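Incident log, structure service

09:12 report received: a user says their structure output differs between two submissions of the same chain.
09:20 pulled the input from the user's history:
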Amino acid sequence: MTKALIKRILHYVKPYAGFLIAALACGILSIGLTLAGPILIGDGVDLIIGPREVDFAGLAKILLLLGGTIAGGALFQWLMTLCTNQVTYRTVKDLRTEVFGKLADVPLSYIDGHAHGDLISRVTVDIDQVSDGLLQGFSQLFTGVITILGTLLFMLSVNPPITLVVVVLTPLSLFVASFIAKRSHSMFREQSEVRGEMGGFVEEMIGSQKVVKAFGYEQRAESRFDEINSRLYTCGVKAQFYSSMTNPCTRFVNGVVYAAVGIIGAISAIGGGISVGQLSSFLSYANQYTKPFNEISGVVTELQTAFASARRIFEVLDEPVQPPDSPDALVLERCDGDVRLADVSFSYRPEQTLIENLNLHARPGSRVAIVGPTGCGKTTIINLLMRFYDVREGTIAVDGVDTREITRDSLRGMYGMVLQETWLTSGTVRENIAYGKPGATEEEVVQAAKAAHAHSFIKRLPEGYNTRINEDGGNISQGQKQLLCIARVMLTQPPMLILDEATSSIDTRTELRIQKAFANMMEGRTSFIVAHRLSTIREADIILVMNKGRIIEQGRHEELLEKGGFYANLYNSQFATDA
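09:34 re-ran on a clean worker, output below:
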């Protein structure tokens, strides 16, 4: 599994192989020059034989060479870091772009079925973990391994028997690091998953803070947060405990290696097997040889976190995308607005049927109102018309063409949609109105705002149409946000409209004016109006009364009242409530 993850990461690194090769080459040169230092130091020690027996000329040459190796090693170390950063940040940029693009391609059901905070965590936190662990940790791992191999070669050139002692003790350090790493992996994986769960919960609570406070949910929210935080603390402590044991354990083994080299080397020097300078070099190499094991053990912790995060990222990338448009799919340039639903059946979950055998014919320019109790399928029809979801059975046709044979973009471009739940992007008022038509002129934007009765309040804003809207319109009222959403649709002038409680957040006086504006905009356009306030749909050409996914009544307002059926009861009860 880990090999597969590394292989997938290397796939993203491949375009920057040049930087990677340069980084490896600079790393080898830097390590080679660094490891040459102890040899020069040992030679220098041997030139200091005793009082008045110091070879100053030879010592000066060694000092110059030593200074050159130190400077060269530092230069190549800097170049290696520069190349590594290029590989890391370019790779992460590509990975983040692909994940974000994948979220735009997956079916809407995937987005609806996952906590948004968790998805945000995967795009931000998890990718950063991959950057810190896999990519940057890889350079430390590489330099550590090269340092170990290079040190062994230099030690062999000084004294093979003592080098053999070091090699014999090496597996002990490797065993300790491997033993601990295996036990920390599962903890890091759980930590990554719980961190995503916490991100989703926090995003949900912050985004709905008014509702939380209105229902006095603060204490229950804190309890839920404490429960998630407690689990994150537990698995985090365990993960850090196991990983933190790696460094001191390997340091202990390294101390054993250094002590063994010192004792055996000293005995060898007393017997004339090596010089004092060579012993000095050997001790330096023994110290340098053990140091990478400590660094590698630290990298293991980052790698465990990175592997867990990489799995979460690739889970998103491995999700099946929504079925693509067929190669011969029709691109709608215009349409008359003739919409027909024939024997449509649909359910979000196979075991729970929502809509069955739904039939509807909306003629061009007609106004179709859809009413019914909550959960009867009104919004689901909107999702099907826009192809946010595809029907399970039956067909939906626009101008006689099955919508599955029309490209999604061109189909959705035929609709203008104003929802009860407003959405604004972070930007100016002008940018928000022109969201669906970026090339709109100033005059077109202003005309759309006037048609939506938004112009007057926009002019009262500090910078008018240049006023910046906070994320999700936090610095204007709910009603003003709704007016901007209406203006956005009025600017595009689509041939078909979907109005889902579009005036629910607007005061009664403004609503009457908006209804007149809508009446003008709906003239000649097929319109689907989802409404709970039945007083707003009296002028509809046909009213569909839905219950439990079926159309149980249909007709004009007066006809349905005369029948005295479900609609009449719903209408009369609403006015009784209003009274």
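09:41 both user submissions now match this output. Likely a transient worker issue. Closing.
09:42 reviewer note: The radius of gyration is 35 Å. The first strand starts at residue 339 and ends at 346.
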